[in-house]
Specification:
By secondary structure, the protein is of the alpha/beta class. The chain has eight helices and nine strands. A four-stranded antiparallel β-sheet has the order 7-1-8-9. Strand 3, helix 3 and strand 4 form a beta-alpha-beta unit. Helix 2 packs across helix 8 and helix 3 runs parallel beside helix 7.
Length: 231
């Protein structure tokens, strides 16, 4: 078992494991217990009362965090030559088509998000084995396959994230950095949670949101009272 450091012990002592905090209190507390030398990510883990094995209970969506993610997102825009200038102006880090398809086929995946046009999806199909496991395959449902690729690039750069429930029924999402003001962490958390609430499947029975936890990199988890989510 890994040894708990003095800082980790101090952080754990500040979190009452028997208490469910409001989002505002959790946002303030997660900053207090984040004592890494780097700017730690702040994450939410939301356990849902759904069965992800059933297609009609797969919760998946996109949300634009009002205060951004705090991360520098590398975007590849796979577009036809006539779209290259506008997606470059929108902030895409890599722009092109055939040369990048060849690089991906050879194993290159040094990007965070790929956006493209409907007409190009046929060329991406054979690259599913490379892109799929890394969560990089563009998808119309997440807004990464669109005719307005420039807008998609701006959205991703501006804090748009996509999320989906995993096979255990949990949604994991990064909502900012420990350096953010507490009210910005709270605002991003509320935006994500409200979006998840709106996506409740009609076939889901019983309690929809079973638990919510906030944490930063290597910090203790802070339970959030689901009743504090503004709907």
């Amino acid at each position: 078992m890994a040894k708990i450091t003095k800082k980790q012990k101090e952080a754990r002592a500040k979190v009452d494991a028997t208490k469910a905090y409001s989002i505002a209190d959790a946002a303030a507390l997660v900053k207090e217990v984040s004592n890494m030398k780097f700017d730690a990510s702040v994450d939410l883990a939301v356990r849902l009362g759904v069965d992800p094995r059933k297609a009609d209970q797969m919760v998946r969506g996109v949300v634009t965090l009002p205060h951004g993610t705090g991360k520098s997102v590398k975007v590849l825009a796979l577009v036809t030559p006539d779209k290259e200038a506008e997606v470059t102006a929108a902030g895409a880090d890599y722009v092109g088509l055939d040369e990048y398809l060849a690089k991906i086929k050879a194993g290159w995946t040094d990007v965070d998000v790929i956006v493209t046009m409907p007409s190009i999806m046929g060329k991406l199909g054979p690259l599913g084995r490379v892109l799929g496991p890394r969560g990089l395959m563009p998808n119309p449902k997440t807004g990464t396959v669109t005719m307005d690729v420039a807008k998609a690039v701006k959205d991703v750069k501006g804090g748009k994230i996509d999320f989906k429930v995993d096979k255990t029924g949990i949604i994991h999402a990064s909502i900012g950095k420990a350096s953010f003001d507490a009210d910005k962490i709270e605002g991003n958390a509320q935006e994500l949670l409200q979006t998840i609430m709106k996506l409740k499947p009609n076939t889901a029975k019983g309690t929809y949101v079973k638990s919510i936890y906030m944490s930063s990199t290597m910090s203790p988890s802070i339970e959030i009272d689901a009743k504090s989510v503004a709907i």
